Amino acid sequence: MQIFPKERYKEMVPFFARFPHQIISKSVLAGYTKGTVYADKVSTPTASLLNGLGFEILVAGDAGNRSFSEEAADYIANQAVPAAKEAGAPLLTVYPETYQWVHTLQKRLDERVGYISKKSKQFYALKAHQFKKYHKALPEYASLRAIDADLLKDETLLNRDHLQKWIETSWTSMDAFFQKGLGYCVIEDGTIAHWCLAIFAAGAKLEFALMTVDGYQGKGYAKAGASACMEQAIADGKVPLWNCNKENAASIAVAEALGFEKRRDYELFEIKL
C-alpha cells in the first residue's frame, strides 16, 4: 500500500463515486479537509484507502485484491488506531464501499483489532423548496451570530477555543472554512452554547454537523443554529447534507424539522478507542 501523491488526487475521484453519502472523500481530494490517500499501486491503482481527519476511513476499489486488503487492515490496526487514540479521538470509523469490502474488512479487522462493531447511520439531503425555516424566537438573553473571523477573535467568549478546534479538525485551514464553509452559533450570556457548521465541502454540496454544550439543551438552539445555516447555504446555491447515527433521535428531529429528506441507511464499522 503506497501513499498516493496529492497532485494526482483528481485521479482518485472515481474510486469514491459510490460514497455520495460521504462527501468527506471529495472534500479531502479537493484539498479542503485534512487527509491522506493510499493505493495498492501508485502507477495503476485498483484499490484505495482514504483516511480523513485521522479517524474517518473509506475503503474502495477491488475488494478481491487480497494483498491490499491485508495491508489496509494492518494499516488501520497498527497505524490509524494508535494515531487516532493519541490524538484524543473517541472513535475510529471505517466505511466499506461494497458488501464484499464489508465481509473482507470485518474478517481481517476482527483478527487484528478484536473490538469492532457494526453501526447504522442515516444520510439526509435538503432541497431548497423543502426547507422549513425555524421561526421561534430565541430568549432575550441569547443571540444568533455567524461564525466569522471577528467572532473567533473575541477572547471574551467562553467555548471559543472549543468551536475553533472543531473547525481546525475538519478543515485544512481557517481560510478554507471561511471561503468554502459557513456556520452559525448561539451565544448565551457570553458563552457559545451551540454551533452548527459545514464540516465538508464538495462542489455545491456542504455537509453540516452541530454541537450543543451540556446544560443548554432544550432551548431550541440546535434548530435555530441549523436553520440559519441551511438558509444561508441555500441562498448561496449550496445543497445541505446531514449524516447521523440511526439512534440519534435529537439529530434526526432537527434534520426532519428543517425539511431534510432521508436518502439512505448504511452501515459502517466502529472501533472504540
UniProtKB/TrEMBL annotation:
InterPro entries: Acyl_CoA_acyltransferase, GNAT_acetyltra_YdfB-like, GNAT_dom. It comes from the Bacteria. Keywords: Transferase. PROSITE patterns: GNAT. Residues 142-273 form the N-acetyltransferase domain. One of its GO terms (molecular function) is acyltransferase activity, transferring groups other than amino-acyl groups. Pfam families: GNAT_acetyltran (PF12746). This is GNAT acetyltransferase-like protein. It comes from Desmospora activa DSM 45169.
